[in-house]
Design a protein that fits this description.
275 residues; alpha/beta; Nitrilase/N-carbamoyl-D-aminoacid amidohydrolase; six-stranded mixed β-sheet; 16 strands
Length: 275
Amino acid sequence: MRVALVQTRTPATQAAAVDHVLPLAREAAESGAALILTPEGTNILQKDRARLAAALTTVEADPVVCGLRDLARARGVHVLVGSALVDAGAEKAANRSLLVGPDGGIVAWYDKLHMFDVDLPNGETARESAAYAPGDRAVTALAGEARLGLTICYDMRFPALYRALALAGAEVMTVPAAFTRPTGEAHWEILLRARAIETGSFVLAPAQGGFHEDGRGTWGRSLAVGPWGEVLAGLDHDGPGVLVAELDLAAAGRARRSIPALANARAFSPPEALA
């Protein structure tokens, strides 16, 4: 199965994002990929909460989502809109991953479970929970012959989610991201390869990269990892681009049979505090 990961530097408005993202998605389609994946925040990246709230619309009305749905329909491919930031009502947004089928219909959607509420060593702070309503369910969905486990960015630090997705049959974990530059340099590749090894799964991580209009910096370095933890393909920069990889879906089964960690795990009682 050929896949194409789109790396973007999404602007601060949806109108500009359409002009930025769609040419890259068309390039991905030209590669012959059956599945095209875009990063977190594909439709808009805006740190100013008031401006973001004023800009957000529904999934159905978002011009970037609509453009990618049209592309999926025209090319007859699956497209994972890694995430679109959309209006969720109740004065909150949703960070929502959308799997679009070859007919342009939305096959499945997933709202980011884990909110990035942190104070980084370099002085940067993030409080996603102030603007976004977290999801409450794990999601798998079929894209052709591949069963995807849908996750977003910070989710990658929570291995229990990936184990649950693997046990539900997912063999390809999708991790669209807008990783910060300090954490990306330290942890990006290590965490993605660890999630692949632990679950015997492919991990596909299309990323935002570079310095954006809203002032944020993201790490880039989109990555495709095999179920043995090997890097199948990766970008070595933070600029916009397309990464193509070939997946032998049977490799997930081989990895899980070789190291049957999913089957061998046992329930246990939590540790007791010792004096």
